[in-house]
Amino acid sequence: MDKFTKLDLNSITSNNRMNIFNCILEAKEINRAVIAKKVGLSIPAVMSITDDLIQKGIIYVIGKGKSSGGKRPELLAVVPDRFFFVGVDVGRTSVRVVVMNNCRDVVYKVSKPTESVEPDELINQITEMTMESINESKFPLDRVVGIGVAMPGLIERGTGRVIFSPNFGWNNIALQDELKKHLPFNVLVENANRALVIGEIKNTQPNPTSCIVGVNLGYGIGSAIVLPNGLYYGVSGTSGEIGHIIVENHGSYCSCGNYGCIESIASGEAIAREARIAIANKIQSSVFEKCEGDLKKIDAKMVFDAAKEGDHLAQSIVEKAADYIGKGLAITINMLDPEQIILCGGLTLSGDFFIDMIKKAVSKYQMRYAGGNVKIVVGKSGLYATAIGGAWIVANNIDFLSSN
Ligand SMILES: [Zn+2]
C-alpha cells in the first residue's frame, strides 16, 4: 500500500487543499485573506486547511505582512524539504534523473548514457539511478512522493503500460508495474513528449488560456497538447503523434511500420541516416571528414554543423527536414489554432537557422488567414525539461497533502 494515494479530483476537500497549496506555491509568500479571495473560499475554510497543512509541516508562517488597518496578517510559505518528487527521462541515448523539492526547485540532477534498450536491463538502470539520486540528495526516503517516468511511445493511460515504443522496439511492457516492484513509492509512467511539454510550460510560462502544443524534435518526433485544465489525451490516449503524419507517399520506412512519416524524414535519426546513405553513394560532403571516415559515427549534430559551414549535401538534408516539420506544424495550426507552439528537443539546439527554415515552411503551408495569432517559440528549459516534467506529473497527480 502506497503512503500517498492518487489525487481524487472528485473530492472537494482534496481539490480545495490542492488549490490553496498551489496558491501559496505560486505566490511564494501570501496571507490567508488573499488566498481566500484567489481560491473563492471563506476565510474560516482557508484557516482550517492552512492550519492542517502547518501542523503537517507542509507550509509554515514565514513572517508578517503589511497591515491594512488592523493586525498585521501572517504570511504563509511552502516548506521546501517536506516532500520530494523524482522525474526520469528515459531517452534512447541517455537517461536523466532530477529530484525536485516541494517548492518545485530542482535540487539534484544526473545524466548517464542509456546502457541497454532491453526492458529488464533498462528497468534496472532506472531503479539504480533513482535510488542513487535520492541517496546523493541525502533526503529521507519517506519524503519521496513518487517517481514520474517519461518514456517515448504509446503509453496506456492509468496503467503506465508501454503499448508500443518504436524507438525502443518495445511492445506491451508493463513498465509502471515492473518499476513498482523495485521502488518503495508511487510510480507514474507518462509519454515523454507530454512530460517534456509539462516541464517546459511549468518552467517558462503560466497555464494556457486556450491550447499549447509542444513539439519534441529529437531522436524521434512527437508532440503533446495542453489545454487549460491539463494534458489532452484523446479518446484512445494516443493524441499528439505529429511525427507519424505521412507526408511522402512511398517514402522512407518509419519505425512505426508505415512509410513516409515526418519522423522518418526529419528526426535526428533520419537526418543522420540520410547523410550516411548519400555519403555511402559517394556524394561529396564535409560530414565524411567529421565522422573520420566511419559512417556509423554520423549523427544529426555533424550534419547540422556541416550545413552551417555551407556543405551542400548537409544543407539539402536539413532544408528537407525543416520543410517537412513545417508541413506538420501547418497541419497542426490549421486544425487547432493554438496560442503557442513550443519547439523543444535536441534539434532545436542547432541554432536559429533551422528554426527560421521551419517558420518559413510553416507560412508556406498553413492556410491563408488561419492561425494569425499563433506564436512559434523555442523551449528554454534545456536537456532536463522532460525529467522535470516527469517530477511535475507526480506533484500534479498524487495527493501528498492528505498524508500524515
Ligand atoms: Zn511513423
From TrEMBL:
GO biological process terms on file: D-xylose metabolic process
InterPro entries for this protein: ATPase_NBD (IPR043129), ROK (IPR000600), ROK_cs (IPR049874), WH-like_DNA-bd_sf (IPR036388), WH_DNA-bd_sf (IPR036390)
Main function: Transcriptional repressor of xylose-utilizing enzymes.
Secretion signal, residue range per the UniProt entry: none
Annotated protein name in UniProt: ROK family protein
Keyword Nucleus: no
One protein family per Pfam: HTH_24
Keywords: Carbohydrate metabolism, Xylose metabolism
Entry's family note: Belongs to the ROK (NagC/XylR) family.
Record PROSITE patterns: ROK (PS01125)
Cytoplasm recorded as keyword: no
